[in-house]
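A.,

Following up on our hallway conversation. Structure tokens first:
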């Protein structure tokens, strides 16, 4: 496998990813690679910084959780509106062995592009919304452990589940 998962503590996970401006064959190939890595790693979402590429592209496959879903990629995603509230447990390929409850909006209105550059605005709720918000955080250098209570985070640090500085 050409790409390796980057783990918490790797500086690339803290960078703000650059927007994608060229919708060429290389991008289509990279989108396919991302879906492949996500499947190999048994993930339901993957952001490019997690494989060391600081660009605004994420792969999502919620097909195990949502009927009629399929693997897809979202490029330059931007949350326009959000509403509601949902607390549910999250994990992350970059933080192995850690699962914590995270509170986020339940519904989002998302602007994004596909591999061809076509622009979409679509509403997402439930699991798809949750995965998208988690992955979009990655594009902004945010990890889900940033969104848990300081008490829980300290416990993870004390138990050496995450590094003290990351
Ligand atoms: Ni993650």
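Then the amino acids I'd put at each of the 166 positions:
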């Amino acid at each position: 496998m050409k790409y390796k998962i980057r783990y918490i503590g790797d500086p690339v996970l803290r960078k703000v990813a650059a927007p994608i401006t060229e919708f060429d064959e290389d991008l289509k190939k990279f989108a396919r690679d991302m879906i492949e890595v996500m499947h190999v790693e048994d993930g339901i979402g993957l952001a490019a910084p997690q494989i060391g590429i600081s660009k605004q592209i994420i792969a999502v496959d919620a097909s195990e959780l949502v009927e009629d879903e399929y693997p897809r990629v979202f490029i330059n995603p931007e949350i326009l509106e959000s509403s509601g509230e949902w607390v549910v447990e999250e994990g992350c390929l970059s933080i192995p062995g850690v699962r914590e409850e995270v509170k986020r909006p339940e519904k989002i209105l998302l602007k994004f592009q596909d591999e061809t550059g076509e622009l979409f605005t679509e509403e997402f709720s439930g699991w798809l919304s949750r995965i998208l918000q988690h992955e979009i955080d990655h594009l902004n250098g945010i990890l889900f452990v940033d969104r848990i209570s300081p008490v829980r985070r300290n416990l993870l640090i004390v138990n050496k589940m995450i590094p003290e500085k990351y």
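The chain has one domain: 11-158. Curious whether your intuition agrees with the design.

B.
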